[in-house]
Write a structure and sequence with these properties.
The complex is a heterodimer of chains A (60) and B (567). Chain A is mainly alpha-helical and 60 residues long. In chain A, 72% of the residues lie in helices and 0% in strands. In chain B, strands 1, 2, 8, 9, 10, 11, 17 and 18 form an eight-stranded mixed beta sheet that branches. Chain B has an eight-stranded mixed beta sheet with strand order 6-5-13-14-15-12-16-19, with helices on both faces. In chain B, strands 22, 23, 24, 25, 26 and 27 form a six-stranded mixed beta sheet that branches. Helices cover 27% and strands 27% of the residues of chain B. The chains are: A mainly alpha (60), B alpha+beta (567).
């Protein structure tokens, strides 16, 4: 189920707040843990791999 | 330097016929195996049981390479099924230690305590731990019972000449050199295969930046120590360590070497320091043996070069995580034995040996992929490997799913061979069951009034399993296809079903019908290595014969001409 605009706005704010509150060297580790937790919520490997592709920078 | 705490049997040199009676003579043999280790002895036992005369040549005088090292420790259920057919599983199980749980630590903090739920319907446990030389000794005792097998200890192959229709081997012995000729040579001579060197073969080889020390330690902990795996140990500069209980009251410790000079790490004083720390300060132990290893990945492709066939470590090596080395060597040998037997009997051509090379290469690549993924977790090298590994370790404290992502070695499971000459894709509708190419599933049965397991009925031949409650055919089914024996077994849930001329196994627990997806009836054909060749819904010997006939016809198409390969 897609995020509603309201919920999306709240999530964005929380993500930014959390990231900005972290020392620089902990940002990546935070994101890695977040990705794994969300992946477990989603569960579907096909969807997850598609998301990895969608999030990857375009190849030059 | 080290105390030798194992009592290994020594095997004496016996004068071979080549050196008997004065003049040196050359004899020709059907099959010569180089190397009497795990792979060579398993293959020799299998070939010998199948009636093939085989000579095994080994430079050592004992079971086990380099004397007293425990080497391969974990034997998986599938491998034990093979040992069962070779007549050594009971001995191995009696000596070995069963384990079904493990603990994983981040430094000293317990991250995961897992239990491998045993499948109570299986004849053998998921894993047995035993020093490799014990397994080799039991295999050797087995081949000693077989007239077909001639093991020649203290004999070193020093030269190999591949000809169009034979291979000549030069051998050095305590009583002088001799040579012998063979139709086929099987290289089971391990990681530093001399046969590969004689053929000037260059395997694809990658050394990993991962060194391990190991020690066998005799200590009485009052109970068996189940598998322990420590990550991030500060005394190892963040390296890992593993402990496994083995037989003879010994524990095998493996730990990562973080120092520049790996030899420093296996000095006895340093080993004592490591072991004492891992034993939380205890010092009442005996060090039985010490060794070290560098992790690597090697694939010698193809496994078949003219009349020389590579098996086990001679063909492939990989990081040790998951116990895939020894297990895959035994499974290689099993895949090869029936094929080589048929080729030597003239019942099949070179194409059947190609299927050995292809199927076992696929298995080696699959094992390699799994082992390297574990390697990446245990010994992260890249930034990404470390980032996601550490994320998993951190989450594992709270999250069950993350504990499952801790990859300290995924246990060896038998490969599912892909559709190919010897594996027929389904034509009938099967949405469940054991898929073609997979290893047969075992479960309890009663047969002829006694309790057994299904695979006890298996004699090493093509075997048709008919899942049915009725049996119509009145004529005894054909027992031979293209020179290969075909056995027939009826699997039924009806204990009253009475059939003459065909063995009946009663599926007392219902597990066989369930796992084979056979409620609507089914006919499965097992290959002589217990993998599924194909299956159909119709229960009739005609269908089973057709499957065997079809796959053998497909295997008769050689990829290359034999003569070309010899050049």
């Amino acid at each position: 189920m897609p995020l509603t605009t309201d919920d999306g706005d709240r999530l964005m704010a929380r993500l930014i707040e959390t990231w900005d509150g972290l020392p620089p060297e902990e940002g990546e580790a935070f994101l890695a843990r977040l990705v794994l937790l969300l992946a477990n919520e989603v569960g579907d490997l096909g969807g997850l791999l598609a998301a990895v592709t969608a999030a990857s920078p375009p190849r030059p | 330097m080290t105390e030798v705490g194992y009592d290994l049997r020594e095997y004496s040199f016996k004068t071979p016929p080549e050196l008997s009676g004065g003049a040196t003579r050359t004899f020709r043999y059907r099959c010569v195996i180089v190397g009497a280790g795990l792979a060579g002895l398993a293959l020799a036992a299998d070939l010998g049981q199948r009636g093939v005369e085989v000579v095994v040549i080994d430079r050592d005088a004992t079971s086990g390479a380099e004397g007293v090292l425990s080497r391969g420790v974990g034997y998986a259920a599938r491998t034990i099924e093979i040992f069962d057919r070779l007549g050594v599983a009971d001995k191995i199980a009696a000596k070995a230690v069963t384990w079904n749980e493990g603990r994983i630590f981040d430094d000293r903090e317990l991250l995961n305590h897992y239990v491998i739920q045993p499948d109570q319907k299986q004849k053998w446990p998921a894993f047995l731990n035993l020093q490799q030389f014990h397994v080799e000794q039991y295999l050797y005792e087995r081949v000693e019972e077989l007239d077909q097998v001639d093991v020649r200890w203290q004999s070193t192959v020093v030269g190999l000449d591949q000809r169009e229709d034979s291979v000549e081997l030069s051998v050095e012995t305590p009583e002088g050199p001799y040579s012998l000729e063979a139709d086929w040579v099987v290289a089971c001579d391990g990681a530093h295969s001399s046969v590969a060197k004689f053929l000037a073969l260059e395997p694809s080889l990658t050394y990993l930046n991962d060194y391990w020390a190991y020690a066998d330690v005799r200590v009485d902990l009052g109970e068996l120590l189940q598998r322990r795996f420590w990550l991030n140990l500060p005394e190892l500069n963040g390296g890992a360590a593993i402990a496994h209980q083995m037989a003879d009251g010994c524990i095998r410790y493996d730990w990562q070497i973080a120092h520049v000079d790996p030899d420093e790490e296996i000095a006895e004083e340093r080993v004592r320091e490591r072991v004492t720390t891992l034993l939380e300060g205890r010092t009442d132990y005996e060090i039985v043996s010490i060794g070290r290893v560098r992790m690597k990945r090697k694939v010698l492709s193809p496994f078949l070069h003219g009349r020389v066939i590579f098996v086990g470590d001679a063909a492939h090596e990989l990081p040790a995580f998951g116990a895939r080395g020894g297990n895959s060597a035994v499974q290689d040998a099993e895949n090869l034995a029936w094929k080589l037997t048929a080729v030597l009997a003239g019942d099949a051509g070179y194409g059947l040996l190609d299927t050995y090379a292809d199927e076992r290469l696929a298995a080696a690549l699959e094992n390699s992929r799994c082992a390297l993924q574990s390697e990446s977790f245990i010994n992260p090298q890249s930034k990404g490997e470390r980032l996601f590994r550490d994320a998993v370790l951190r989450l594992a404290r709270e999250q069950e799913f993350a504990r499952r992502l801790i990859n300290t070695g995924r246990p060896s499971v038998p490969i599912v061979y892909a559709d190919g000459p010897l594996v027929l894709a389904d034509r009938d509708d099967f949405d469940a069951g054991v898929q073609p190419g997979a290893a047969a599933y075992n479960a309890p049965v009663t047969t002829a009034g006694r309790d057994a397991h299904l695979l006890d009925l298996w004699k090493g031949n093509f075997t048709a399993l008919y899942f049915t409650e009725t049996w119509d055919p009145s004529d005894p089914p054909t027992d031979e296809v293209r020179g290969f024996d075909l056995d027939h077994v009826i699997v039924t849930r009806d204990p009253q079903l009475s059939v003459t001329g065909v063995e009946v196994a009663v599926d007392t627990t219902g597990a066989l019908f369930d796992r084979y997806g056979a409620d609507a009836g089914a006919c499965y054909v097992l290959r002589p290595d217990m993998h599924i060749a194909g299956r159909v819904r119709e229960v009739s010997p005609v269908g089973a014969v057709a499957i065997v006939d079809q796959i053998l016809a497909r295997a008769e198409q050689p990829k290359k001409k034999e003569e070309e390969l010899c050049r």
